[in-house]
Amino acid sequence: MSRVLIIGAGGVSSVVVKKCAMLPEHFSEIHLASRTVSKCIALQEEVGKDRVVGAYAVDADNVPELVELINQVKPSLVINVALPYQDLTIMDACLETGVHYLDTANYEPKEEAKFEYSWQWAYHDRFKEAGLMALLGSGFDPGVTNVFTAYAAKHYFDEILYLDIVDCNGGDHGQAFATNFNPEINIREITQRGKYWEDGQWHETDPISIRKDLDYPGVGVRASYLLFHEELESLVKHFPTLKRARFWMTFGDAYLNHLKVLEGIGMTSIEPIDFNGQKIAPLEFLKAVLPNPGSLAEGYEGKTCIGTYITGIKDGEEKTIFIYNNCDHAACNAEVGAQAVSYTTGVPAMIGAMLMLNGTWMKPGVWNMEQFDPDPMMERLNQYGLPWHVLDNIESPFSK
Ligand code: NDP
C-alpha cells in the first residue's frame, strides 16, 4: 500500500501533489491536509478527486489533531511540506501513530533562527526503536546537494576535501520584491549570520558580507554571497574528511536593496511588537503582504543552476568536479503550474517518498539524504524532471 498524507498546501506542496498524482503505481492514494482547507480543496479539484482522495484542515502545531487525522487516513508515510516550525509536532504524531516521515527543511523554533538538526537528530533512537524512518531535507538544497556530494564521494573521489554548494536563481519573475519560497523562512535564512566550516571548526561572518562572482552554466556570471545553509551541518558530520564546506547563493542588487531597507526599518524582525493591542511579528506581517511564492510561476523567465563543486583526491591526484542541475521556470510552469524553486524542491520530495515506500531507502531511524546510496535518487532525478550534469576535472573557481 502506498497511501501518503501530504501536509501543507503551498508552492512546494502543489508540485509534490501533482508529481505523486502522475505516478499511481508508486502513490496509490494521496491525502492532503493544511491549515487553510480551501487551498487543499482547490488543489484537489485541479488534480482530480480520483488521485487526491481527501482534503482536510489541520493545525500541524497541534499533536492530538495530527494524531486524529493520521489515524483517520492511515497513511504509510507523512510528507511534511508545511513549515519548519511544524517538523517536531509532525514527527511526534508519526511516532504516536506508527507512520514514516519525510520533510524538506530542518526544524526551526519560531523565536530564534537556528537552522540546525540537533532537535530532529535527537529523535533517532525513538524512530529506530519504533521501526520507523524519518528522511530529513528531501528537497534540492538541502536534499539533492547532499546526494550530489555522496555521489561524488562514491564515484569520483577516494577522499573529498573541499565543498562549495552554489545556488543560483537566474530567473526573473517581474516583481519588485518577492521570495521564491515561504518569505518568512527565506528571509530568516538570509539575514542570519553567515557560517562556514574550515579546519575542524565553524567560522562566522556578517550576513551577506562575502561576495564572489561565479559563472553558472546555462545562466552566466552572477554575484554570489556566502550564507550558512543547513546541509553544511550534516555533510560535515557525515564526510569528516572535508577540510572546508561553504554555501553560496546569488542575489541581485534590487533584492538586496529591498532587504536592506526592510531590515533597516525592523520589518524582518521575528520579535513580536504591539500593534493596536495585538502582538504581531513584523516578519509575519511582511509575509502577508509579499507575493505568494506559488503565484510567481506565470511569466517567470530564466533558469536556476544549483550544484556542488567538490575538490578531492582520486588515485593520488587532486581534482575538482562540478555536479549541477539547470531548471527552467517556464518549463516547470508548463508542466505543473509552478516556478522552478518550488519544482526543484517538490520533485526530490516525491522521489524521496518513492524510495522510502518501495524499500530502496527504507531504514528505521532519522537520516539525512547523504546517508543512503545516492545512485537510485540520481537515476530518478534524470527520469522525473531534474536532469544533472557532471563537469569532471575542471579548474576550481575557488582558491584553497
Ligand atoms: P508556503 O508558505 O507556500 O506553504 C506552506 C504551507 O504550510 C501553507 O499551505 C501553510 O498554510 C501550511 N502551514 C503553515 N503552518 C501550518 C500549520 N500550523 N498547520 C498546517 N499547515 C500549515 O511554503 P513553501 O511551499 O514555499 O515551502 C514549504 C517548505 O519547503 C518549507 O518548509 C520550506 O522551508 C521548504 N523548502 C525547502 C527547500 C529545499 O530545497 N530543501 C527549498 C524551498 C522550500 P496556509 O496556506 O494556511 O498559510
Automatic annotation (TrEMBL):
Residues 4-135 form the Saccharopine dehydrogenase NADP binding domain. Signal peptide: none annotated. Residues 139-386 form the Saccharopine dehydrogenase-like C-terminal domain. InterPro entries: NAD(P)-bd_dom_sf, Sacchrp_dh-like_C, Sacchrp_dh_NADP-bd. PANTHER family: CARBOXYNORSPERMIDINE SYNTHASE. This is Saccharopine dehydrogenase. It comes from Aliidiomarina taiwanensis.
